[in-house]
Amino acid sequence: MAGAGGYEEYAFIADLYDHVVLYRDRPDVTFFVEAAKKAGSPVLEVGCGTGRVLIPTARAGLDIVGLDLSQHMLTVCRRRLQDEPEAVQARVQLVQADMRRFELGQVFTLVTIPFRPFQHLLTVEDQLACLGSIRRYLVEGGTLILDVFNPSLDFLVNRPVGGEFAEEPEFCVPDGRRVTRRHKTVAHDRFNQVNDFELVYDVRHPDGREERLVHSFPLRYLFRFEVEHLLARAGFAIEHLYAGYDKSEYGSTYPGELLFVARRADS
Ligand SMILES: C[S@@+](CC[C@H](N)C(=O)[O-])C[C@H]1O[C@@H](n2cnc3c(N)ncnc32)[C@H](O)[C@@H]1O
Which of 12, 22, 73 has most ligand 1 atoms within 8 Å of its beta carbon, as the pocket-test mutant? Predict the structure, then answer.
């Protein structure tokens, strides 16, 4: 399905996602679980993927709805949930929908978009449609947590288009495959702030066969003040801007994250 950043197009991503070292070790889960505990139920996670954040949130006792456009990612999430105690499963509801326009039967105290799904939205129109949909499903004074990466100017200017970079540590899949992954920028559209990326997975099968799998997707980068303007336009008031999940303040490290905590603004 178009618009899901390749997560629907390439079934292999959902299969490998939870084993990728950078995802498995991503230091954001505690931040999101603590935010959910502070806000209380119910929570909506937009772009919930395989449940990397959603499942620990449900384990912490929160009722959570996970929304994602990719059936493949949701299938893995459902499979993972089957290994959880019934009480945890009962706290989770999964919905296949587009974050730009969705209909849900309840409102939420907290909406989160962990690990950059928002950057799969390439136009201001789509970004505002998403923020507008989220706002409609937030209780008065409810909180939105939105994280995107802070674009590194050095990286944007100096990284050659076409070259592979950032080889990651090898990881193993339970079926015996061993995988290494590299990144590649295929094109950089400076006018629309979109990079065409490839995540290149080199897979070695247990029988020695080698295979290359490629996840191609465009990713929009956003600058700090741009997100602030978007949030204001969409009816949010920013409470915090952090550079990392340890709540380090924006400006304390470069490039860091753009981790926004915003409240639904009501006049
Ligand atoms: C990098 S993954 C993040 C998954 C999860 N939040 C995590 O932290 O592991 C991005 C997710 O965004 C989802 N996504 C991309 N575009 C979407 C859209 N338009 N509507 C809903 N989900 C979308 C993808 O299917 C994918 O699961």
Answer: 73
Q: How far, CA to CA in Å, does 185 sit from each of 12, 165, 217? A: 20, 9, 10
- Of 26, 99, 134, best ligand 1 pocket probe by most atoms within 8 Å of the beta carbon: 99
- Cα 10 to middle of ligand 1, angstroms: 13
Residue 165: CB partners within 8 Å, gap ≥ 6? 159, 182, 183, 184
Tell me the one-letter amino acid at 17.
Y
Distance from C-alpha of 14 to C-alpha of 226, rounded to nearest angstrom = 31
* Segment 31-79, tens digit of pLDDT: 999 999 999 999 999 999 999 999 999 999 999 999 999 999 999 999 9
pTM of the model: 0.96
